[in-house]
Write a structure and sequence with these properties.
The structure is a homodimer of 409-residue chains.
Chain A (H helix, E strand, L loop, with lengths): L4 H6 L5 H20 L1 E3 H8 L3 H13 L3 E6 L9 E5 L5 E7 L3 E8 L4 E9 L6 H17 L7 E8 L3 E2 L4 E2 L10 H9 L3 E5 H10 L10 E6 L3 E7 L2 E2 L31 H4 L1 H13 L5 H5 L8 H9 L3 H25 L3 E5 L7 H14 L2 H4 L3 E4 L6 H14 L5
Parallel strand pairs in A: 4-7, 7-10, 11-14, 14-15
Antiparallel strand pairs in A: 1-3, 2-3, 4-5, 5-6, 8-9, 11-12, 12-13
Helix pairs in contact in A: 3-4, 7-15, 9-12, 11-12, 12-13
Chain A binds a DNA duplex (30 and 30 nucleotides) through helix 4.
DNA sequence: TCGTATTTGTAAAAATTTTTAATAACTAAA
DNA sequence: TTTAGTTATTAAAAATTTTTACAAATACGA
């Protein structure tokens, strides 16, 4: 049985005291969500609420089975306090990554543990109702597979590529053929509150949540796949911009070349520093007569994929190494601009291209030093991330959990 | 006599109830600071505190002469409520802009009215103690001139160029020869709490506070003087980055030229799109034999200042117009990148160069359309600001007031 | 002009929260 | 093992806040 608490949350018509109680309980849950466990004294101090009152809230939350006793703490002197924390399986959150060729669905519990995960679900993304219904079907199957009450699943976060307004639930690049918000369509088809998110932003959130960040939490995540995406975290929150379209880093104009970008413009960073660029560089040079281990393997140059180039580089293929070096240098120049503007504490480079490790990162860091102000870049750590490609659906879960528990927002 | 309230604020040792009272009063003051006036019912709703309790706070704040009755409101039906608001002259804030060749000092009251202002105070900025003491002397003289109790001046905000950590009060570019924070030096010399700020950020804050922004408040201010500065407002707050060095927009590398920038690097935006660049363009072309109205006026080309070029352009000097056009185009390309990254609701272009109006703004907007994604730039308003050059000291006042009243932070 | 509808402001009653005090739990040193 | 010192928890008392009820203020229409 689900607790009264989540029903209470949505009841707007509550008198002052009842409303304050709910707010305090939410604050306590949010505290547990970030701090794992806490003692009553800690919570009392944190929220400036008396110990008996906190005690009352904890008792009620325990009765609702949202919070439980995690045993005595190990303080030095005096009577040891009880610690309390979230009940892991009191509620669940589902996250869905809609890729162009597959789906990935994850489910986490209150304590961020992955309860279930299904990756590489065959699926073809097309901008029509059939393709949309296929997503719903997969999600419903995923839910049915588990023996979990629907009421215990507090929400579903769905990542789509392209332009998303997470506040309104509208998608502008895909499935934008209804008048109502797309999130409403999902809700009606699945029966659980649904929230949309841009895929790069959700992935960034997962990366940022991995515990590397300090207090301030101003960080950037650069996703280098075929294209280049950017997730911006400012003061611990994802940054969206006026309509949620922030982070179009791949299309800043910093080159004077004549290469037409996917966006239609010239001189974009993406034309020289992305996976697309990497493939173009390699195939161009092979066409110009350069030799590479790839020429034996692939009859048709169109079949060469990003991973093939990176694998070849790791086997000392000079052409590929140099091409990756080139990408690293150009990307580094772009990242130098980000450092000058944001003065971030951390930049994470992820995506498939990051797997080329030092072939990418050394020229990249070199270019950063060359093109950004030393007083500014001194503060910025740059790291590569080799996380699982299916991290995005986990990011959707995390983001959803943190939003519903009011940690973010 | 100053109220008890500000003394209370700094007393950390208060029991729970007293502390909550102070916090509620601060919230009420902060509300008044942004909303001018409010009724008791409004405040009760806003903070979820009962009407009698709010009434009690308002009564006490009135007794402390921080708040006063602003008369009946004009609601449609029923008994008309009293409105309350800040007492304009219950307290004051001083802001100081330290320029390279002069000082500007402003004083505002609680309601943001400029009570006193002194601009163009002769002064030479040098990185030594003498120059620092000269600032203190001017501030002390400014204070003495007014018949205002020191205790009523709640703080002094001082803008310096270069790298400032406003949280710690350290300055890294100027007056960095003491072990203690520079802010402490000022406090000891003046006897009033002092806060340092970067000049571009303070100026930005003044520009952002002029009431053009909507709720979200994601905006950028580009200051185009000799160099280029950038102030970033995110979610209504100035963005600092890890150590307060954010906004080095002038030194992002986007050109493949060979011009050495003031920062020592090549290819910076500033080499093609700043006041420096404008002067360089004009003098270079005159040296190359181009004709201009400026050649008659100035025997030595080194004497040509930014304002001269802008004035000449406004009198249809073709050479100057084309040079400004060039700056506009290049700056627009840089701003296009900012739009792609930030998706801001507003970009304000200020500084001396902004005074060239459409000679600058038309090529600039054209370049923005050319180089940024239309789906993103559609949201962004770009406006020129022709505000007084001495706005920065007012910005320091505003920022200080809003910080002390806890509106920001 | 008067009565009705509506909302504010305030006083008293009721409910809630904090504070204080007492007790329980625990460590470390005698 | 006992005792002094420290902190947690609980219970009761005190203080505070909210709620309720009602008088005062205002607009509008009869």
């Amino acid at each position: 049985m689900t607790s009264n608490f989540f029903k209470d949350i949505h009841e707007a018509t509550k008198n002052g005291v009842a409303y304050k109680n709910i707010r305090l309980k939410k604050k306590i849950l949010a505290y547990f969500a970030t701090n794992e466990t806490a003692t009553i004294a800690e919570l009392s101090k944190e929220f400036n609420i008396s110990i008996p009152k906190i005690n009352e809230c904890i008792t009620e939350l325990s009765e609702d089975e949202l919070v439980k006793d995690y045993g005595k703490s190990t303080s030095a002197v005096g009577r040891k306090p009880n610690t309390y924390g979230l009940v892991a399986n009191s509620a669940y959150f589902i996250g869905v990554q809609v890729g162009s060729e597959n789906l990935s669905i994850s489910m986490i519990n209150m304590k961020k543990d992955i309860v279930s995960k299904k990756d590489n679900i065959p699926y073809v993304l097309e901008n029509n109702e059939e393709s949309l219904l296929a997503i719903c079907k997969e999600i419903n199957q995923f839910i049915d597979k588990h023996n979990i009450l629907k009421a215990k699943i507090l929400g579903i976060g769905i990542n789509l590529s392209g332009r998303i307004n997470y506040r309104t639930g509208y998608s502008y690049s895909y499935f934008n053929f209804y008048e109502d918000p797309l999130s409403k369509f999902f809700e009606e088809n699945i029966g659980i509150p649904t929230f949309l998110e841009n895929d790069t932003k959700a992935l960034s959130y997962a990366e940022f949540s991995s515990g590397i960040l300090s207090e301030e939490k101003d960080a950037l995540f650069v996703n280098v796949d075929n294209g280049i995406g950017l997730g911006i975290m400012i003061n611990g929150q994802l940054y969206y911009g006026k309509s949620g379209f922030s982070g179009e880093f791949g299309h800043i104009s910093i080159f004077d070349n004549d290469i037409i970008c996917k966006c239609g413009k010239k001189g974009c960073l993406e034309t020289e520093a992305s996976g697309y660029a990497l493939i173009r560089l390699v195939t161009e040079q092979i066409n110009n007569g350069a030799t590479s281990s790839l020429t034996k393997k692939f009859k048709k140059l169109e079949d060469i994929k990003l991973n093939d180039i990176i694998a070849a580089a790791k086997k000392d293929d000079n052409l590929c190494i140099e091409a990756i070096n080139h990408i690293g240098d150009k990307l580094g120049r772009g990242i130098a601009s980000l450092i000058n503007i944001f003065n971030p504490e951390l930049i994470i480079i992820g995506g498939v291209v990051a797997k080329s490790e030092e072939y990418l990162s050394l020229p990249l860091k070199n270019a950063v030093n060359k093109y950004s102000l030393s007083t500014v870049n001194r503060d910025t750590k740059i790291i590569l991330s080799f996380k699982n490609e299916n991290l995005a659906s986990y990011g959707a879960c995390l983001l959803l959990r943190d939003r519903l528990l009011n940690i973010t927002d």
